[in-house]
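CORE FACILITY INTAKE
Project code: CF-77B
Contact: R.S. (postdoc)
Sample description: multi-component assembly, two entities in total
Requested service: structural model of the whole complex
Turnaround: standard
Below are the sequence entries exactly as provided by the requester. Do not edit them.
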Amino acid sequence: MPPSIVEVRDVSYTYPNAEEPALRDVNLTVEEGEFILLTGPSGCGKTTLCRCLNGLIPHFYSGELEGEVRVLGLSTREHPPSELARYVGLIFQNPDNQIFSLTVEKEVAFGLENLGVEREEMRRRVEWALEVVGLSHLRHRLTNELSGGEKQRLAIASILAMRPRVIVLDEPTSFLDPKAAERLFEILQHLNREYGLTIILIEHRVDLAVRYVDRVVVMDDGLIIVDAPPREAFTSPKTRAVGVAVPRVLELSERLLRMGIPLKRLPLTPEELLEELQGRLRSDGGRGGGELRVEGAEPIIEVLDVSYVYPNGVKALDGVSLHINRGEFVAIMGENGAGKTTLVKHFIGLLKPTEGRVLVDGVDTSKATVASLARKVGLVFQNPDDQLFAESVEEEIAFALRNFGYSEDVVSKRVEWALHLLDIERYRGQSPFTLSGGERKRVALASVLAWDPEVVVLDEPTIGQDYAQKERLRHFLLQLRSQGKTTIIVTHDVEFVAECQPRIILMAEGRIMADGPARRILSDVEALEKASITPPEIVRILRGLSPYGVPCDILDVEEAAKVIAGRFRR
Amino acid sequence: MSLFEGLRFSGGDTPIHRLDPRAKFLLTASIFTAAVLYFHLLPLLIIFLIQLPIVAAARVWRGWLRTLRGGIYIAVLILVTNLISFYFYKGRVFTPEIVEYSLSMTLRFIVLVASFSIFFLTTSPDRLSLALEKLHVPYEFTFAFITAIRFVPVLAEEAQSIIDAQRARGLELERGGPLRRVRNYIPILLPLIVNSIRRSLELAEAMESRAFGAVRERTNLYELEMGGLDYVVLALSIALTTIAIYMRVFHPQLGAFFPRV
């Protein structure tokens, strides 16, 4: 019998200067042609395991490695990453930090040049790899002109060109919008089916990923706790206990089971559930759903026919008008490049309209300083690393308060308040740089909420966040909302928005495509399509059941289960 | 900054773009040499005019003019410094020679900027690095060079996000006296540095995963071969340098409006 393509035997690993091991006694065998989803909360050791597979551990990272990792029978101790690169390709989260060349085709060739592949063969492989990921038409384009999705596909092509037998992807879709993520997964599936490529995928977007994989490995605290086919893995109590995302469809199906609706097997995708329910529903029954809350009508942000053109001539906003009322909870959605971030930068005057006007609490932003507007509108940027700089968490939070000229007395009080609000009191004296990604994000949030701005704007708050962190964020947003704060999130995370149920403003190509309550917008498939947003899982299912008269403007799992159960022929 | 912006390659496909970087570099070098040899307006003006047809053939007027515009401040600085220093040096008098000499120095600077601009505007860094490899420059150097160019826009974007994020936290860069203003940049520089360190680590991992340094003899997707036009350019460059040296040595006063006595 040939050796398994990947064999991990009793592997434990501790990073240099770390107290706790990052991997404990990990055992994993992967056969050729498998498509594996590796998931688990942040810091559980997923990335460390990836680094073991191509020899980055122990060749690039020192530290203590015990046990044995073999790839196609080759021990990673004896073969350095540059040699293993022929067999295992690693693709990282941030597309920008793995592209070295200025043009697309040269980038794909980079690995082959390093391997000394001769030119004719190189040309062939580059063409093939570009073809597979659908970038052939962009081969002479400059790499920095590509979109995030194109960059990530380029990263895959550059790995594919080296003809590895296994590719390992570490959260490849974190920075991508849903359409681009789906495209990426489809390419992976094609590679797996057509070329028998073995794929190991680390991913938080399980809803999307689950339909492509045939095995799920769940890690927690350096251990592999579940290793099973998707259905078993996601229903295992162990998986539930560590708090990883579970496909929405599965949640819905379990609720249906509890309501006494028999399902032959637990469906994982909307298609499977629809198949189960086909012909088993009556076309009448109760309508679920409650009335929408009516918001107060006092506007705090008014955008009046605003257009914005960047100095390089790109028109990012094109005649945008909208009102946001005091106390409203709003999500601005749209694909990358739709103009969402450009729009919110207008709210604190970081950008001034080329045409039109923006009023914040009645003040024209073109006549006010950023600092004065920032006191009313707190803008929290996507990447906390773009703002953290102080020696301690306390200092970080005090920074803005001092800029605004609060007395030291007030500063220390507000710092206490913010530390408590975000539950980060225990890190107060620590350097922000030593904290984990999720913790840094909370410090960044605290450093803005500290001055208690009337409006809070969060740019892509869910990027790179695991299930538990997202849940925490959702509760926090609801808390802000109940305090009457105007909260605005900029995001393309459909499932997250479906759970928060805010007012949604859909943007595409610098324009507003739709504006209304979440239930209406997220079930308006045509509008979503225009904005390149995929509908939430629940809506997909309900749309499939619309022949039975099931309303499709429901976002909540519980409510959807009730509506379906109400129509079930018993 | 527009001085450097004009130097950035932005694509294009003309016979000038297709020239072998080595031949093109020799042409630039010969213009450079000729410019350095002369102190007089007329020959420098001729050298300047020689470049116009090249710019026209490469269709890079816009980038070229932008570079020249970016160079204006330095040009004015050169002119003024020359005038002032000669004014005092010659005993507080302005002579026609002083004016001509100062203008020549300024024009020389413009000629140099112009010729380098043509080279960089029409040479893709990928092909340039290949030429360097052919000239046996160690690959580590050319790789560092290409990566640096590659990350200029990434860093610029990141710097902008950092500035935005700190301004959103009430940082006012223009506030305070000179010392305070320098300190205002700390919240911008620190994240930029920390991010760069983090990025370099990620880049190193990605390089390993792409078999960087796997074999000693790297291959290259592109090939450089000197074609007919390249040899013509080569011959022209040598001719230009020869003529320039000949004239300078045997007719040193040529082209001077005010021959020195």
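Facility notes:
- Chain A touches chain B through 72 residues (CB under 8 Å).
- The first strand of chain A starts at residue 6 and ends at 14.
Invoice: internal transfer
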